[in-house]
């Protein structure tokens, strides 16, 4: 059935809780988190863009990760915060489709980018003499362009599979945003085959990227056997931040999208984690563990301070 023949014109979110006092407390927490996400990731983007020392493939990819984190959290957070003050949390059918479309673009783009970042670290550590040839800003720009194309194709598949289903009621989504698993449960038809296709699409991307990441780190570990203790320490320091981000983001994605839709209440907590917590932790992880980024931020701060003092 075409999306233009739907009898459902809007959906209603149940949100995270029906306890009003707890909902208001969560609003304060998530408002602060969202504000920190914007500040932290914008600061990384500005720092990378303004310091020529950071105009390298590694930091170019890091800046793109911050951009994706801003977009990813902005797909769900503003609507969730606004709904806190509404008696009924309503979203139009078109708004719901748009939300899940952009959600999957951002999530898939981040998975692809984390895989590219693993490739970057693998070449830098294992084949340093060939690094400039195989990983440079031009190649990274092509890879980033490719990941957005791939993410868009993936999201279109997910969206088309969801929209083509008939929706004639109920229209209540047990979540705080529109995503494919909770939405297709409301379809007025058997969704088993569609669910299998959706899980196959999302699950395959997550698992293939996960295997690529594991392969990269296995190659790195084998390469480190021939290094000195100091060389191993530097390599581990470089890779640990990226590996931590991979675990924090890809783990929840695999749990949510590599199995059929469920009624697990824990799914809400997992969704909060990868849409709000991970984008907050990414700038913290990279800035606190990266001396070059911290030095560049300090220089940027001093430049701005001097500028305003003279003004």
TrEMBL record:
Q: Which residues form the G-protein coupled receptors family 1 profile domain?
A: 40-286
Protein name from the UniProt record: Olfactory receptor
Location relative to the cell: Cell membrane; Membrane
What are the protein's UniProt keywords?
A: Cell membrane, G-protein coupled receptor, Membrane, Olfaction, Receptor, Sensory transduction, Transducer, Transmembrane, Transmembrane helix
What's a GO cellular component annotated to this UniProt protein? plasma membrane
Q: Which family is it part of? A: Belongs to the G-protein coupled receptor 1 family.
What organism is listed for this UniProt entry? Answer: Pantherophis guttatus (Corn snake)
The primary gene name is: LOC117671227
Membrane topology term: Multi-pass membrane protein
A Gene Ontology molecular function term of the record: G protein-coupled receptor activity
For this protein, the record's InterPro entries field holds: GPCR_Rhodpsn, GPCR_Rhodpsn_7TM, Olfact_rcpt, Olfactory_Receptors
Q: Which domain of life is it from?
A: Eukaryota
Which residue spans traverse the membrane?
Answer: 24-46, 58-77, 97-119, 139-157, 204-224, 236-257, 269-288
The cross-references to PANTHER family, in alphabetical order and at most eight, read: OLFACTORY RECEPTOR
